[in-house]
């Protein structure tokens, strides 16, 4: 796993505030520009205005599974969030399964859940997680772990050998499950859901006027305990904290249980948490002209998205979606996406930090819009929230054919996004 301790800062003392502060500082230090003009160009674009409400309301976290208890559903959402990575394997996954990272992880979770409810022991407990094998995960994901290689001694003979990117990904998934299961067992927890419920209860006890106070408690518990949630680094001597999967976990629980009174304790308010910064958010913000990399030469980021500053291309992306042809989508051959720039760990932390901070700035600009300068039907822009903006950016990237073709950057070998 990519967790070289010499490149990692200490855990923060105040989570949400330090995520915001370190991401803003890194964006500035790396000369990545996000101007008010570029933000307003996005907010008032036809693309944003026409699709924001529809797309940001459709969260897709209602699973068609019959959970026997709230505990069971929270456990499911927690392990789903633990495994909410694999973006670096999007293209090979598309080649093999026709689906991207998120849909493959969802399929794996379905498989783990269904196998657990029909077999003896549950794979979703601390003990079960430690027993999972590479072949089990590959079966549940319906992926092939072999690559074809010429036989070492017999010329002309091709043999299948374990290897290739999908094998690497499956190993990362298995290591993450084993390691998390071991930690849970060592602290006497039955499963990840039990741990998360206890953390939420502790968060409830710390509710205060600051909406992020209880989020901080939950994050400190989850991130503090499990290496696979310790999404942080040091870049050019500066600490940077993203915690994408832990923030996503808390928000997923809020989406599912926030408006019901099913839980015997209060869950945090996530309306002001930082966005869940992965590879999609920064890439889309670059393509939509909000993140400007042209001065960011220290790590060569200015060369990574050629064409992103082309005016005609930007106009077209910010306009309405292109007319779709009448051919039904399921009869069209599915073309796998093209791989985007492959980045180092440092480069990807810089871009993820820039996206996280850019989203903070987008919300600030939206809030500061003068009401009398807006037509009434656009007042809603002033009230958009960070998690809604996250969902819009993430989901619009799949909503339009021209956005689906936009390259997302790739970092292999990470369990954080
Ligand atoms: N920022 C942000 N990143 C997100 C999500 C989600 C899941 N979204 C659904 C769940 C709840 C929401 O309400 C959505 O319905 C996945 N990812 C990331 O994308 C990566 C790329 O995946 P793909 O394009 O498939 O290959 C994946 O490794 C994962 O790191 C999100 O919501 N926000």
TrEMBL record:
Pfam families assigned: Q_salvage
GO biological process, any: tRNA modification
UniProt xrefs under InterPro entries: Q_salvage
Listed GO MF terms: hydrolase activity
Domain of life where this protein originates: Eukaryota
Catalytic activity: queuosine 5'-phosphate + H2O = queuine + D-ribose 5-phosphate
Entry keyword set: Hydrolase
E.C. code: 3.2.2.-
Enzyme class: hydrolase
PANTHER family listed in its UniProt record: QUEUOSINE 5'-PHOSPHATE N-GLYCOSYLASE_HYDROLASE-RELATED, QUEUOSINE SALVAGE PROTEIN
Family to which the UniProt record says this protein belongs: Belongs to the QNG1 protein family.
Known role: Catalyzes the hydrolysis of queuosine 5'-phosphate, releasing the nucleobase queuine (q). Is required for salvage of queuine from exogenous queuosine (Q) that is imported and then converted to queuosine 5'-phosphate intracellularly.
Name of the protein: Queuosine 5'-phosphate N-glycosylase/hydrolase
Protein source organism: Scleroderma citrinum Foug A
């Amino acid at each position: 796993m990519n967790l070289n301790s010499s490149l990692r800062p200490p855990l923060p003392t105040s989570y949400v505030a330090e995520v915001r502060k370190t991401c803003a500082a890194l964006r500035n230090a790396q000369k990545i520009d996000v101007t008010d003009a570029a933000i307003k160009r996005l907010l008032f674009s036809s693309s944003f205005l026409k699709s924001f409400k529809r797309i940001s309301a459709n969260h897709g976290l209602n699973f068609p599974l019959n959970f026997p208890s709230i505990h069971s559903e929270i456990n499911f959402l927690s392990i789903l969030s633990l495994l909410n990575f694999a973006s670096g394997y999007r293209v090979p996954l598309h080649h093999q399964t026709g689906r991207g990272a998120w849909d493959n992880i969802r399929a794996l979770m379905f498989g783990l859940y269904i196998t657990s409810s029909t077999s003896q022991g549950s794979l979703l407990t601390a003990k079960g997680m430690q027993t999972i094998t590479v072949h089990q995960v590959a079966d549940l994901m319906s992926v092939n772990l072999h690559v074809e290689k010429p036989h070492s001694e017999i010329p002309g003979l091709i043999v299948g050998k374990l290897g290739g990117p999908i094998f690497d990904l499956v190993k990362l998934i298995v290591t993450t499950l084993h390691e998390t299961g071991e930690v849970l067992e060592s602290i006497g927890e039955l499963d990840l859901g039990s741990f998360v419920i206890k953390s939420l209860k502790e968060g409830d006890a710390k509710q205060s006027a600051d909406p992020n106070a209880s989020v901080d408690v939950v994050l400190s518990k989850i991130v503090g305990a499990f290496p696979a949630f310790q999404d942080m680094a040091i870049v050019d001597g500066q600490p940077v904290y993203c915690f994408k999967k832990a923030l996503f976990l808390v928000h997923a629980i809020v989406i599912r249980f926030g408006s019901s009174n099913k839980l015997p304790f209060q869950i945090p308010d996530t309306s002001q948490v930082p966005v869940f910064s992965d590879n999609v958010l920064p890439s889309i913000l670059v393509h939509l002209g909000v993140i400007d990399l042209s001065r960011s030469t220290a790590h060569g980021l200015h060369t990574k998205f050629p064409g992103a500053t082309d005016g005609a291309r930007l106009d077209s992306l910010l306009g309405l979606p292109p007319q779709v042809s009448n051919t039904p989508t399921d009869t069209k051959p599915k073309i796998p996406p093209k791989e985007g720039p492959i980045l180092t760990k440092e480069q990807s932390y810089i871009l993820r930090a820039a996206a996280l901070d850019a989203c903070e700035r987008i919300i600030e600009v939206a809030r500061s819009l003068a009401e009398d300068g807006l037509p009434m039907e656009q007042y809603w822009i002033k009230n958009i929230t960070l998690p809604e903006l996250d969902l819009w950016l993430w989901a619009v990237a799949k909503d339009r054919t021209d956005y689906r073709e936009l390259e997302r950057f790739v970092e292999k070998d990470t369990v954080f996004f």
